Amino acid sequence: MNNHDLVSLLVVCQLAAPAATLILIGLPSLVGRPLPERATTRIVGTGFLIGFLAGIVTLLFLAARDFRPEVVHLGTWFSVGHHEATIELVADGLSLPYVCFSTGLCGLVNAFAGKYLHREPGFTRFFVLLALFGTGMNLMVLAGSIDVLFAGWEFLGISSALLIGFFHERSNAVNAAIRAFTTYRICDVGLLTAGVVVHAAVGSGDFARLFVEDWPNGACLVSPTIATIVSFLLVFAAMGKSAQVPFSAWLPRAMEGPTPSSAIFYGALSIHAGAYVLLRCEALLEQAPLAQLALIVIGIGTAIHASVVGRVQTDLKSMLAYASMTQAGIIFVEIGLGWRVIPLVHVVSHAIVRSLQILRSPSALHDRHELEAALGGHPGAGGWSLGSLLPEKIQTRLYRIALERGFEEMAVGRFVVGPVLQSLKMAAAAERKWVAWLGGARP
Amino acid sequence: MNDSIVPSVLSVSEHLNQSVLVAVSVTVAAPLLGAIVSSLGFGRRSPRLLAVTAAAISLVSSLAITVLWSLSDGRPIGYGAYMGGGRLLFVDGLTAVLLPYVALVGLAILLIAPRRSLEQAAVTRILFGTAATASLFVTSHPLAMVVLWIMTSLPTWISTKATPGGRPAARVFLIAMTAALSCMALGTVCMLVDPPWETASGWVGTTGGWLVAIAVMVRKGIVPFHSWYPALYAGAPMSTALSATMPQVAAYTAVRLLIGHADGVASELVMLSQMALITAAYGGALAMVQRDLRGLIGTLAMSQSAMVLAGLSGTLPMELNGALCMWISSGLSLTGIGLATWALESRAGVISLDTPQGRFWDAPALAAFFLLFGLACIGLPGSLSFVADDLIVSGSLDEQLHAGLLVILSTVLSGIAIMRGWFYVFGGPTTADGTRHAILLRERVAMLALLFAIFSLGLFPAPLVQSLDRTAQELLGTQRDSPSPRGQQSPTDSNGVELHNASGER
């Protein structure tokens, strides 16, 4: 077995291990024989452990070779005429850190959730969705083509929405899940169209046709016009998954899901999926200064918005959601500035810290209550902030804006969603009247 | 030595053709016999057993056709009278792929139908409808297709009319089908008198082409003739609505009468393609604001069916290939959604989408199946619809940008509608009375079979796609080598069809 075969095997393991757990715990549920809790967590944990170890070994192997990328060709899925859907995975300095920290975090959350969700009615459902998420995440980050990347991206969106609505008996959770999925789906148009433009431009979805796959030293292989169009579409797609303004309203509501999934999705991995796509296509962005400028503007806007709004939140998980959003905005700015390694380091460090904070949040609240009980009152006000330097009038105005969440939801609802839904409802009502008339009903 | 091999190869080919013929006969005869036996009152005690047996035989024999076809040399087989570019019995790659699909849909419906919906008359109607649909899929004879359009519409109308509260829907269906059948009959006659694909064709042939195109639009529920689609789902039993819409009789007719002769009906196909794209997007948008589950399924079915026609009306093999994949994937997925809904309705009554209904606690297994079918319908990676979407979007884009964008828009809107529907049906405060309704074994088996078909074909699509590619090439090749419609027969005609006389001899 030569080096390439070894890396191929390890990369396949990173993808196959979580996918196998998905089948192993999903199929018995589908035929009406769900596995016991312990078996479920062990299987999922083993899958992520294998993926993590395979990722670490590959990372070390590549590090020894100065992170020269390794392309793993798994074959042609199907082909028609000149159209070929190939399955290619890439192990390089971008994908492997992502695989390692995503499978590692998934494994840790698996261990945490095994206790946290003990005897919860949706226990198996949670782990099925966690395995689906892990599979999707690894598929996305290892993707060597935009088609494969989109497949992983879809798994992320679906598992995310289903976990937000995990406590399905709560209407708030249901509405939050629908809102999140709708936002994802609208922004998916960007990625889908980008895929289509890439196919039309270079005849294939392979990244190797778009840029030299030598991250972080990739070079663009297409014209600036194509690079600009694709970059803008990717930015649009990334805005939804990474909750950038004006698509950020779903994120604080997403905390309706169980704490372990909130930690891994909205503190660590899912919220950085957009950043990953942009980092993967950084070579295109370099050829598209307008898209870079847009990224910077969006990132700054989101960071300011989330920072201001997050300060007036009254529950811990919402505060953490806005804090995640702020960091995601800053990461967008970093990518827009053309930096490559710094955003990656930022993503990994932020993901680890934030997921720890979210996982800790329920017990932190408990500890805080105990502290207050012991002290017989509030332990004291927070420290100094930059905002206190502003004139009081501006502070009051900012406070009102923050309470209204920056009027973002109101604006999107009133000027976009509302008119569209109203028109559709009118069309549906007209259809019903027409059918009733055809059916013989007369006024 | 070569001399000894050639005759043996020929005889193998002939033997395969004869076997295909036998399998086709069984596929059609089994449900027909079942319908006759049921109408005579036999099997009254266990109508499901009779119906499922007949449908299962039909499925097995249709699968045999697929296997035999894959072993054959791939040339279409034609028997019987030759007219208007079609033959009374015609089997090609399209038939070989679609017959098992039609049979599987029929079997799943019979397995899941609630007991009270499976009385003797209903079984007779369902089996007769299945036999008529299967017959339509093995002919390319224009007049036979007109007759079979009537035969496939009748059970739907009777069944809808007999349903309590179904008369308005039956009336809407009757109006639509009367219009469709009139256009189809008149258009077919015009096309036979003056084939539009012949160079000397005049206004009669052109009128015929347009009439058939309009008939296809009405029967497929294309805007502005789409109203009967959601109305049927709202007013008819689910089995009737699914049997009437899922096989996509009009799409098959479009393939045989229009797409096979695209040179003569190019304008009609462009119109069909554009209207189908609009319908796909409009149906997806309407599905997002439906107030009940049946309305959601009806509008989704309308959107997906339009997407099939949009792909079929394209001029590239890739688009046709995608459309044929979509035909199967959306049909199986929507059948699954419809059947899960039916099973849920039999436990909980009509399901509104105005507020979250909280049915998850009551039926978690149905929630899982509904979700999987829903996701498979909107292009979940790993399902056949992902492959279909990929082919249609890529194919459309090769031709025109707006088509690809409309397909993407339709997929996105349908996805939102499906997930909203799922959360509103199964999410929300529970309204169950405390007793859980477990899924029945036959329901689970039927749904697992549908899921297996969707995901096995989605994960390993290469054989299906290659087979459909050959079919698509043949269909598009037909337009380049349009046959002389009347009388000029040869051992192998310009379609590559092996010609036989009425008794099946060469």
Strand order of the largest sheet of chain A: 1-2
User: How many domains make up the 3D coordinates of chain A?
Assistant: 2
Portion of residues in beta strands of chain B equals under 5%
Low-confidence segments of chain A, given as residue ranges, are none
Structural class of the helices, strands and pairings of chain B?
mainly alpha
How much of the sequence of chain A is in beta strands?
under 5%
Mean pLDDT of chain B: 86
Largest sheet of chain A: 2 strands, antiparallel
- Looking at the structure, what is the overall shape of chain B? globular
Low-confidence segments of chain B, given as residue ranges, are 1-5, 478-506
Number of strands of chain B: 2
Which geometry of chain A do the CA atoms define?
A: globular
Order of helices and strands of chain A: HHEEHHHHHHHHHHHHHHH
What layout of secondary structure does this protein have?
The complex is a heterodimer of chains A (443) and B (506).
Chain A: H1 3-30, H2 37-64, E1 70-80, E2 83-91, H3 95-116, H4 123-142, H5 146-164, H6 171-202, H7 207-210, H8 224-241, H9 250-253, H10 259-268, H11 273-280, H12 282-286, H13 289-310, H14 316-336, H15 341-375, H16 392-403, H17 408-438
Antiparallel strand pairs in A: 1-2
Helix pairs in contact in A: 1-2, 1-4, 2-3, 2-4, 3-4, 3-10, 3-15, 4-5, 5-6, 6-8, 8-11, 8-13, 10-15, 13-14, 13-16, 14-15
Chain B: H1 2-39, H2 47-71, E1 77-83, E2 86-91, H3 93-112, H4 120-136, H5 142-162, H6 167-193, H7 203-220, H8 228-235, H9 238-245, H10 249-258, H11 266-287, H12 293-312, H13 317-348, H14 364-377, H15 384-399, H16 401-426, H17 441-459, H18 462-480
Antiparallel strand pairs in B: 1-2
